[in-house]
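Q&A log
Question type: sequence-to-structure
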Amino acid sequence: MSSRDYFFDNAKFLLIFLVVFGHAIQSITQEDPLLMGVYQTIYFFHMPAFILIAGYFAKGVYKSGLLFKLFKKLIIPYLIFQVIYSVYYYFLRNEQNLEIDPLNPQWSLWFLISMFFWSLLLLLFNHVLKLKPKIAMLTSIIIGLLIGFVNDYSSVLSLSRTFVFFPFFLAGFYLDRSFFTRIKSRNLKLVSAFSLVVAFLFMIVLPEFSSRWLFGSHSYEDLGMPIETSPLLRLSVYAMSFYLTAAFFSLAPESKTFFTKWGVNTLYVYLFHGFIIQLYRESGIDLIVNPYLSLVIILAASIALTIILSSKWVAAISQPIVELRAARARKLLVKKPDVK
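Response status: OK
Response body:
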């Protein structure tokens, strides 16, 4: 009997697919309100939900040797891929100079460095300050609002994203498994599906809303909104993101599905899909036949790419540089003798 919770593997696969799909359509979102609506709706909840799951599984990990484990699991792979991506971009874009800056994460690598700091912040909030959950959540949201006033160094070590998205990590830590069960009643599923559709339609008719509000990486000044009202808008984004994140979890299947097995390897998809997406962007290939057909083409390509990168073979081959061990490769290469 497997001890894995199929619900989270299902959710993780669906979310990593949305990450790939969102990155794939990003460069063409200006072509049509439909594409922009799909893109913005996804960005309201896909990373918040991913981060919430990470916080949920952070329970019980705060033991001796934590810093070493975090360094090995997050910082070393971050540094390795920072070098790999820098070299890759150097050749892909024919850049004049090869620059490797460990303080400014390449593209999607911000997640690794933020995971490191979320874990440290959780240690501070829960074990050092011993804040009650409601106080901790309120404090994290206030910090997320205040970080928008920081204009300089907000991208250094993913500082802005770390504080903006920390409430989702913290929420995941405080939630128990029963929460995800309670939001799965038939009525709540209907409300959740309806809410996602309404959010999508709302994004279509609200073209002036900037997607950069959903990235968590920009200061209020960069976002071009009046400083006085910017915190209120970010607070509104928080509210919508939490609501749509709950809607997503309400709809994610709990039982084992054909894609459950792929939800185990989402880290590999996250780290490697950028090579393909950036190659596609730099190639200049134009998939815009019409917005609807283009959406279908990119959707199908994103599903295929997600499945391929979720395979046990990709995980086995790349595990030595992602996890600094080769257990999966040995398991595939060494055939177990038949038991008679």
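Response note: The chain has a mean pLDDT of 91.
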